[in-house]
């Protein structure tokens, strides 16, 4: 039982470390912006104005969502003079942390007894 409690404590810590990315990915507007950025296929990055053109959001709203994605570690920014280009983090540290937490959750859940009572 002590080992089980340690697993749960560790998982709770992993959840805390993933809060920003979970919040960022949980918003429908940010999901849309990410998909549009992927569809643009600009590996070198895109500007807020380009993203705004592909959405039904105002430029300030897009900037707000981009900031949240950046703070969550999903996007990075490169500055060229006065222009900012946003691109997906190739290191994907935040995404890898999320995947690790989800895999850990799955391992713990697989150890739990079936409580469905035979229902599917």
Which class do the helix and strand fractions yield?
mainly alpha
- Output the radius of gyration: 19 Å
Number of DSSP helices?
A: 6
Low-pLDDT stretches are: none
Give the number of DSSP strands.
2
Distance between the termini: 28 Å
Can you list the strand order of the major beta sheet? 1-2
Major β-sheet, in short?
Answer: 2 strands, antiparallel
> What is the chain-wise order of helices and strands?
HHHHHEEH
Report the β-strand fraction as a percent range.
5-15%
Mean pLDDT, all residues = 90
Share of helix among residues? 55-70%
Name the shape in a single word. elongated
Question: Would you kindly provide a brief summary of this structure?
Answer:
The protein has 120 residues and is mainly alpha-helical. The chain has 6 helices and 2 strands; from the N terminus they run H-H-H-H-H-E-E-H.
Indicate the topology.
Layout: H1 2-17, H2 19-25, H3 28-40, H4 48-53, H5 59-71, E1 75-80, E2 83-88, H6 93-111
Antiparallel strand pairs: 1-2
Helix pairs in contact: 1-6, 2-5
